[in-house]
Amino acid sequence: MELRGSFETRHRTSSGNDGKAKGTILQPYGGQGTTNGPPAIALEANSGLRGVTISYETQNTNCIPFPPAIQGRGGNVYIIGVCSPNPYCYVDLASYTCTNHCLDMVDGWALQTGYKVGNGSSGNHHGLPLQLDLLD
Q1: Residue 48: what pLDDT?
Q2: In the structure, what pLDDT confidence band is assigned to residue 60 with cuts at 50, 70 and 90?
Q3: How far apart are CA 61 and CA 95, in angstroms?
Q4: Which of 135, 131, 126, 95 is nearest to 113 (CA)?
Q5: Looking at the DSSP assignment, which residues form a beta bridge with residue 124?
Q6: What is the average pLDDT score of the chain?
Q7: Residue 47, Cβ neighbours under 10 Å: how many?
């Protein structure tokens, strides 16, 4: 199963031939004020996310806690071409074991935790600009 934006690549602010910016933007609001709620996107085993931007529109200079933007919940999960300019916790691959995971072109500027990998999780990480916290 794959959740895919309107394009396979991440959202860009540059315009297409028609003069309009292209892409898919998800704006989570659930769990605001806590880190214990369900993630914005839960990837069960053998699933993936591709070509979206995740933007927390209520986030402000007070740094509001939120549950993870993306959480892996099993083996063979992938995240490709995703951008999130302001998640509190961006990618969680530690709460559940995520063997054989793949992250590629996953950009963002996390306010608390960028990428959290642990609990026996293993996989490939390509082009990650943020701190990668390996817990094991």
Answers
A1: 96
A2: confident
A3: 28
A4: 131
A5: 102
A6: 85
A7: 17
Determine the Cα–Cα distance for residues 16 and 35; give it in Å rounded to an integer.
37
Name residues whose C-beta falls within 8 Å of residue 103's C-beta, 6 or more positions apart in sequence: 78, 79, 80, 91, 115, 123, 124, 125, 126, 128
Condensed to tens digits (0 to 9), the pLDDT of residues 12-24 reads 655 667 777 667 8
* Single-letter amino acid code for the residue at 104: D
Q: To the nearest 5 percent, what fractions of the chain are helix, strand and coil?
A: 0, 40, 60
Q: How far apart are CA 29 and CA 58, in angstroms?
A: 7
Within 13 Å of residue 89, how many CA atoms lie on the same side as its CB? 26
The answer to whether the CB of 64 falls within 8 A of the CB of 40 is no
- Residue 30: both structure tokens together: 């659930």
Look at the chain and count its residues.
Answer: 136
- pLDDT at residue 120 in the model: 78
How far apart are the C-alpha atoms of 104 and 37, rounded to whole Å? 26
Task: State the residue for tokens 């605001």.
Answer: 32
First to last CA, the chain: 28
